[in-house]
Amino acid sequence: RDVEIVKVHFPPLVKSEQFSIIDCPGFYDTRKTNYEITTSFSIDHSILNLRKIDAIAQVIPYNLLVSSRGIYFVKALKELSNRFPNCFSDPILSKKFFFLITKQDQAIGVRDLQERALQLLEEEKNSSSPDLDKCLLLKFFAKQCQEGRVFTILPTTPTQRIDILNKVLQDATPMDQKDD
């Protein structure tokens, strides 16, 4: 992939040397089997080589939420929970997860995304044999929407990615990392 250098403005009073930013290819970014293997390896390698993780931002194409009853959306969330098994049960860790929804044709509000997740949750609850893991994943995403950890990115706003990254950095900065 191409390397792109971008300028990130760290929040006031934050020591920038305390952050590690890894922009890995996304889960299910399958161009071919070799690419998928490389993607998984690069994500796992990056995670294992950090002392700690300040934030995790997962990019999810909008069509995963609306097609096939959200099956691929839930698979993407499941992959995230496989890599970070405590992401739903640990309240501190859950605050480090951010979602960036991309590739929508028109502006979609975060409230709309939350409603879609809740709709999929209701459908699952009302099914003949509800999948409790799927319900947990959908509840988690809906909660992240409510708590301001889900963003939509339109292709028409080139600086929006940087603005969102700055917001993630601001939200993910623990109080003990800020200068007095």
Describe this structure in words.
The chain is mostly helical and 180 residues long. The chain is 45% helix and 8% strand. It contains 7 helices and 3 strands. The protein has a 3-stranded parallel beta sheet with strand order 1-2-3. It starts with 32 loop residues before the first helix and ends in an 8-residue tail after the last helix. The mean pLDDT is 76.
List the helices and strands and how they pair.
Blueprint: H1 33-48, E1 56-61, H2 63-66, H3 71-83, H4 91-94, E2 97-102, H5 110-125, H6 132-146, E3 150-152, H7 160-172
Parallel strand pairs: 1-2, 2-3
Helix pairs in contact: 3-6, 5-6
**Helix coverage percent:** 40-55%
Low-confidence stretches: none
Could you give a short account of the major beta sheet? 3 strands, parallel
Morphology: globular
Order of helices and strands: HEHHHEHHEH
Give the class from helix and strand content and strand pairing: mainly alpha
Task: Give the strand order, joined by hyphens, for the main sheet.
Answer: 1-2-3
Strands, count: 3
Radius of gyration: 17 Å
